[in-house]
Each structure stands twice: as structure tokens, then as C-alpha cells.
Amino acid sequence: MKRKIPLLAAGAVALVAALASHAGRIEDTAQQSGTRAKAAVRVEPIKPIVAPKVTNFAMVELGKQLFFDPRLSKSGVISCNSCHNLSMGGTDNLKASIGHGWTPGQLNAPTVLNSSLAIAQFWDGRADNLQQQAAGPIANPAEMNMSHELAVRTLETIPGYRESFWRVFREDRITLEQVTKAIAAFENTLVTPNSRFDRWLAGDNRALGEQELRGYKLFKASGCVACHNGPAAGGTSFQKLGLVEPYKGDTSIPGRAAVTGKDADRFKFKVPTLRNVELTYPYFHDGSAKTLAEAVEVMGKIQLGRTFSKDENDDIVAFLRTLTGDAPNFRLPQLPPSGPNTPEPTPFEVVKK
Ligand code: HEC
Ligand code: HEC
Hints:
By secondary structure, the chain is mainly alpha-helical. It is built from twelve helices and six strands. The strands form three sheets. It has a two-stranded antiparallel ribbon. Strands 3-4 form a two-stranded antiparallel sheet. A two-stranded antiparallel sheet has the order 5-6. It starts with 6 loop residues before the first helix and ends in a 33-residue tail after the last helix. The chain binds heme C (HEC) (2 copies). One heme C binds next to α3 and α4.
């Protein structure tokens, strides 16, 4: 039985056509400044990543400490970095994350790298921004399982933190808002510029090989860019998983509908970034695709109604690997020692579900 391509797919195709007319256009920004001409910058649906300018270094440093501090969890062993390991592309490389009391999660942990570039946070976009997001995992019983009051109280018993929060915020008490603000300030710095693809965008013709270029052309021509576009090659919209063919797997998760309450948003997810995608396996909200080859095959089939040959799939995967940028380069933070009144962690407490 042949399925008709739904209206949305037609919309996507129109968008692709619009983007394609943009694609490949070369903007010659060459400026004859004395002897050297600048290379021609390419205008493409995937935009270069621009590293943010850090203005408040003390706040970023504090946020970095909090990101790595397991004392924000009831067990005393789970930090943000446990599931968003910055040595592993900002993920845990697990199908679904494991939280407090070894509780199995339902969802694959998205990378925190470049997450500041997305329109919203979480697979269903229920947090508007990084600051709003950061409060979630601390209190989530299946993640860090720490009430916000307890988290803040714990930080107040650590003399080193009292001092640095005072230095950054100049308020008498530590508050949850300060905690999430600092974490978000740190996360804003977690961008990965200077990938080979970015260097090609900036005009370096040798940055991509023949196969990678072929892969990028196919990525554009077959319509992937309708959803994976912008500086993060994703994160710009919510889209249904299984637009042309139904997704083969568990479809019980509501996705975006959980936020909007609209039936039309069932099984829509935030389009994930493809930046550093070679590092962020396994793929999809449920971690069902083990390899990039598998993810590309599924995307072709169920989002675009297209079956790629082995060579075509290899080409696209080769292109996707060029999206790996410079990892954030910073010193591992040293955490201030606990004080005499810092609550004891309770790693073996039974979890209520
Ligand atoms: C137990 C594992 C775990 C811990 C600990 C954890 N996260 Fe997450 N994180 C996840 C999972 C799983 C998701 C996806 C959940 C969803 O979409 O509903 C997520 C989503 C996110 C997102 C959204 C990314 C995106 O692209 O939508 C950000 C940002 C994030 N976490 C930051 C943090 C910070 C900051 C902390 C520490 C305060 C933290 N996480 C602690 C597992 C974890
Ligand atoms: C109609 C929109 C749409 C199109 C077209 C599309 N994608 Fe996706 N892509 C998504 C969504 C939504 C997800 C997340 C799916 C999920 O949550 O399970 C995704 C996920 C992915 C992932 C996994 C990323 C991760 O971190 O989990 C890869 C890789 C990917 N797409 C590549 C492609 C390629 C290659 C094409 C073209 C053949 C393509 N996509 C076309 C919307 C789209």
C-alpha cells in the first residue's frame, strides 16, 4: 500500500525548495584590505556557530562548579555531568539515562553542547530556556531527587559556595534562582565552533573532502535541511517523528502534545541538533538507533519517504561527522569542601515511584 505524503511533508518540501534556492549561493565578502583578500563566505541553511562573549566570568565559573557538583543530588553521586558528560559530547551515551536509586529513565539525554542555540529545552520543549530547564533535574525523583529547598540549604552549609554566591549575586541568601542562573550562564559557554563544516562555510575549500561534500549536497537535496537547519543544524522547530511512515517503536510518549495539549502535536519532538552528532549516540528520544547509519536510514524512510543506497548513506554519515567542533576548553573545576552542617548524602534510600 502506498501512503500519501501528508500535507506537512508537502510543506517541508516547499521549505526545502526555498532553502535550496539559498543554498550554494556564494556571498563574496572579499575585501581587498591591502594585499590579502578574505575567502568567500558560503550562505547555507546550516549557519556557522558563533562563540558567545563571556562578560561575567565569576558567574560562569560558579555555574561550572554547580554543573559538576554531585552534592546537588540526594545520593551525593549524581551531577549534571553524570548524564551530560562533557568528556563524551555532553551526553551519557546510554539509550536512556539512569537516575537516583538506579532508576531507569525513559528518555535519551540530549547533549548540553550548543543547547543554548535551541528554541526551547527538553525533547518536548517544556522549558523555555536553560535557566528554567536547570531546576528540573535537581528535583526530579528519577534524576537527582533533591528538593529545591534541600539543594539550596546544602549549598548554604558550604563556606566556599557562600562566599562565591555572595561575590556573584550580592544577596544575603542563596536562592534557587541564583543556582539556575549560574548553571545557565555556564551552559551558554558550551558551544563548539570551528568544525570542519564551519571552516568550509567560512570559505576554506579544503575543509571538506569529496565524499563529505557529496553527503552534504544529498542532505540538502533530499530535504533533511527542512528540519535540521540554523547554527545547530536543528533546534529550530518541533516536528512529528514519522511524518511519511509511522515510527516503528514505542509511540506512547506524547511528545510536544504534553506541553500544548493539542492532539496535532502528538509524537512531535524538538528537532535535535546535529552538531557533534558522531559523539552523541545512541540516537532519537528513546535512544533506539545505535549508529549514525541507522539514524540516517530511519530519517530518510519515515521523514522523507526515501530509501538511501549504501553509498548514499555512507556519504551523509561522512558529512555529519564534519559537524564535530572544538570541545569547550576549560579547567576542571575544583569544588569547595563541605562544612560541618552539610547534610549527609543518602545514596541507598529506597525510591518511591
Ligand atoms: C539522570 C540523568 C540526568 C541528570 C543528572 C541531568 N540530566 Fe539533563 N537531561 C537528561 C535527560 C534524560 C534529558 C531529556 C529529558 C526530556 O526531554 O524530558 C535532559 C535534558 C537536559 C537539557 C535539555 C537539552 C535539550 O536539547 O533539550 C539540558 C540543557 C539539561 N538536561 C541540563 C542539565 C543540567 C544543567 C543538569 C544538572 C542540574 C542536568 N541536566 C542533570 C538527563 C539528566
Ligand atoms: C520533518 C522533519 C525532519 C526531517 C525532514 C529530518 N529530520 Fe532528522 N530528526 C527530526 C526529529 C523530530 C528528530 C528527533 C526524533 C526523536 O525524537 O526520536 C530527528 C533526529 C535525527 C537524528 C538523531 C539525532 C539525535 O541526537 O538523536 C539524526 C542523525 C537525523 N535526524 C538526521 C536526519 C537526516 C540525515 C535527515 C535527512 C535524510 C533528516 N534527519 C530529516 C526531524 C527531521
